[in-house]
Amino acid sequence: MSTVDILFYLLSAFAIVSATMVLISKNPIHSVLWLIMVFFAISGHYILLNAQFLAIVNIIVYAGAIMVLFLFVIMLMNIKKDAEPQKQLLVKLTGVIAGGSLLTLLIAVVKQTSQIQNKQVLLKEGTIGLIHPLGKALFSDYVIPFEISSVLFLSAMVGAVIIGKK
Amino acid sequence: MEIHLTQTILIKHNYISMTILAFDWGLVIEKLILIAVVVFGSLGIALYTTFGERKVAAILQDRPGPNRAGPFGLLQPLADGLKLIMKEEIIPTAANKWLFILGPGLAMTASLMTCAVIPWGSDLELFGRKIALQIADINIGILYVFAVVSMGVYGIMIGGWASNNKFSLMSSLRAASQAISYELAMGLALIALLMTSGSLSLKTIVEQQVTGNWWNIVYQPLGFLLFFIAALAECNRTPFDLPEAENELNFGYHQEYSSMKLGFYLFAEYINMIMSSAIMASMYFGGYDLPFFDESTVAPNIAAMIGVGTLLIKIVLFIFLFMWIRWTIPRFRYDQLMNLGWKTMIPLALFNLLITGALILANL
């Protein structure tokens, strides 16, 4: 096992434990904080793949902006653990079955995808995740999807402002 | 057969331990020493920045300031630190204990983490090794700073919420909304700088200014002004210290804190000031570049030391500017703060981006 392997397993364990804690924490604030931990673990994985740009943008956007807003809303709403309504057994069971089927489906799809079969992940090398190759790819090969998604963001922003003004 | 098997296992074992230990140990030791020097150095400077703040305030208000402990009151920060440590630790019964402890720790960690990408000087040559005076020259240096800054708000939010006090909570929410609003203008001002420099690595940006004719402030005056205002807001310094508005909120997000936990919050603010001064000096004012002086005329080690001294002087000047503003300008009202952030700074930053883009297109 090389250092990279050890780091990979440590990060994966960290991510899975944190993700589990998101689900089983009674206090919603704790759940949010564990979710931030999950984002950090995922960023660690990106760094192992030498995708520094993705790693840091993941932290800036998700951990730095979106989760702050999450925390903000939860703190303002002041959700207490006692006040959380207890759901019926049937609803819980439905959730477990639906989630379990989705997980099975996802695993099946990933295992059958021909593009990733018998291929190893490039750890610690490969430059596609660095900012120069990524920028070149985004603005040459993928320029139309990139521009369309930015228009989508703009329209979402305008929509949010209009809803906020009402 | 048996012997053969044990041999292979042994070889394999050796191989494993070799790959694990195949570090450049010199590099590890060198980086550890550098980290220790930078972290303890910033803590020491922060200690004396608190003293400097009180002296600057005293001079601006025409009074002597602290002058009892030691010559010119120079031992005052040590006395303050000792007092903070000796005070009783109080954790309110209704507080969330773990998060209450985590809050100040996070604030301190986030403010110290920035120092990892700041280039403190040109390369030293010791024992035949080239030692870079920068903990990590990563490909995405400035974005790293940006990410750490956006983490800094968690320390305040978690501490304010865990205190279980209405005023602390209001204050931490104020801090969070202020930080988010001003991060946008900060990011947009940064993008304009990145367009002119073409690199995200702080080392490269500083080297460009050392070898080039002008510092980046000449190319990005508006960008620097926006960045500076945003930095004031991110450090919670006056006129943006609404999270600590004592006449509205009693004390602020650290109201329930006592002893060294309070000290950590207060200290984190000063370390933030040092780090943002270092970042601004590196990005807009040439970093470790001493103006009108050709570094190649002296030995590399001496040039590196001159560089470190120059950067420190620039940092001290910026810190003085921060203090000067604090003791001159009164605090904003909350709506003024939001108007300035969203309706003035962001449009100006976008305008700056457009101008920069146009100038780059016109090849000026």
| Tally of distinct domains of chain B | 1
Number of helices of chain B: 13
Q: Segments of chain A where pLDDT lies below 50 for 5+ residues?
A: none
Approximately how much helix is present in the residues of chain A? over 70%
Low-confidence stretches of chain B: 8-20
CATH architecture heading of the largest domain in chain A: Up-down Bundle
Strand numbers in spatial order across the main sheet of chain B:
1-2
Categorize the overall geometry of chain A.
globular
Run of helices and strands of chain A: HHHHHH
- Largest interface: chains, residues each: A-B, 24 and 28 residues
Q: What is the number of helical segments of chain A per DSSP (H or I, 4+ residues)?
A: 6
Which whole number gives the mean pLDDT of chain B? 84
Number of domains of chain A: 2
Amount of beta strand of chain B: under 5%
The share of residues in extended strands of chain A comes to under 5%
What gap, in angstroms, lies between the N and C termini of chain B? 76 Å
**Overall strand count of chain B:** 2
Biggest sheet architecture of chain A: none
Helix content of chain B: 55-70%
Radius of gyration of chain A, whole Å: 20 Å
Description:
- The complex is a heterodimer of chains A (166) and B (364).
- Helices cover 76% and strands 0% of the residues of chain A.
- Chain A is mainly alpha-helical and 166 residues long.
- Chain A starts with a helix and ends with a helix.
- The relative contact order of chain A is 0.09.
- Chain B has one domain (86-361).
- Chain B is 69% helix and 2% strand.
- Chain B has helices at residues 2-20, 25-60, 76-86, 97-113, 141-162, 166-197, 202-211, 216-219, 221-234, 246-249, 259-284, 300-326, 334-361; strands spanning 124-126, 129-131.
- In chain B, strands 1-2 form a two-stranded antiparallel sheet.
- Chain B is globular.
- Classes of the chains: A mainly alpha (166), B mainly alpha (364).
- The interface between A and B is medium-sized, with 24 and 28 residues.
